[in-house]
From TrEMBL:
OmpR/PhoB-type domain residues: 133-232
Keyword Kinase annotated: no
Modified residues (4-aspartylphosphate): D53
Phosphoprotein in keyword set: yes
Organism: Paenibacillus catalpae
Domain Response regulatory: 4-117
PANTHER family listed in its UniProt record: REGULATOR OF RPOS, STAGE 0 SPORULATION PROTEIN A HOMOLOG
Name of this protein: DNA-binding response regulator, OmpR family, contains REC and winged-helix (WHTH) domain
Main location as per UniProt: cytoplasm
The entry's DNA-binding region: 133-232
CC annotations in GO: cytosol; protein-DNA complex
GO molecular function terms attached to this record: phosphorelay response regulator activity; transcription cis-regulatory region binding
Length: 232
């Protein structure tokens, strides 16, 4: 069955170009040209991925992203002409999985879409695994591979796809130190071009969910000058 993509882009020419290309790649594309239309579609339909422009009429892309993250962990890729480090950090900080600055090639967009959907659909494969493999526990932290949430002290926190995979990476490689470049290449499955803000924001958001005191983390430790590792 074709994967379903919600494309939210107010520029009709760009929207039609992206829609046409993705349909050629056998995706089922729904389009919205403003935030209100997108919000309605999101509530009515189920999607495998959302492509989101930030500069939208009626409801801004950032506000729409915050609404989406209140109820869903569907992969969200921001496509925007606002390409500053601050805009990227804000978008990722509100829960986007990736950020593509305009102008971009259709080849790059397709690769990012395929990678995001592939990572997301890996979740469903857990249903075929034995029950005992559906959770990873470390200290008082449990990563539930079935619900894709982290449970700390009996409290459950829903994770985004990237947060889930980052935490799983550390929990399954407990003594290893990972550089930011290694994390990016393993989780984003893409070449690293000094995208430190991307890693920093995702680590910060993950710590805010699983750490009692994010400024003094127990689970994801910073190894200064190198990267990160699981806390002892």
């Amino acid at each position: 069955m074709s994967k379903r993509i919600l494309l939210i882009e107010d520029d009709i020419d760009i929207s039609q170009l992206i829609e046409s290309h993705l349909k050629q790649e056998n995706y089922n594309v729904y389009t919205a040209y403003d935030g209100e239309e997108a919000e309605l579609l999101f509530r009515q339909e189920k999607f495998d991925l959302i492509l989101l422009d930030l500069m939208l009429p009626k409801i801004s892309g950032m506000d729409l992203l915050k609404q989406i993250r209140e109820t869903s962990v569907v992969p969200v890729l921001i496509i925007s002409a606002k390409g500053s480090d601050l805009d990227k950090a804000l978008g990722l900080g509100f829960g986007a999985d990736d950020y593509i600055s305009k102008p971009f090639s259709m080849i790059e967009l397709t690769a990012r879409v395929q990678a995001a959907i592939r990572r997301s659909t890996q979740y469903s494969e857990v249903d075929n695994k034995p029950e005992e493999t559906r959770a990873i526990t470390y200290k008082d932290l449990t990563l539930d591979l079935h619900t894709f949430s982290a449970i700390v002290g009996g409290k459950s926190m829903q994770l985004t796809a990237k947060e889930f995979h980052i935490l799983k990476l550390f929990l399954t490689n407990r003594s290893r130190v990972y550089t930011k470049e290694q994390i990016y290449q393993l989780i984003w499955e893409d070449d690293y071009y000094g995208n430190e803000n991307v890693i920093n924001v995702h680590i910060r958001r993950l710590r805010e969910k699983i750490e009692e005191d994010p400024s003094s983390p127990r689970y994801i430790k910073t190894i200064w000058g190198i990267g990160y590792k699981l806390g002892e």
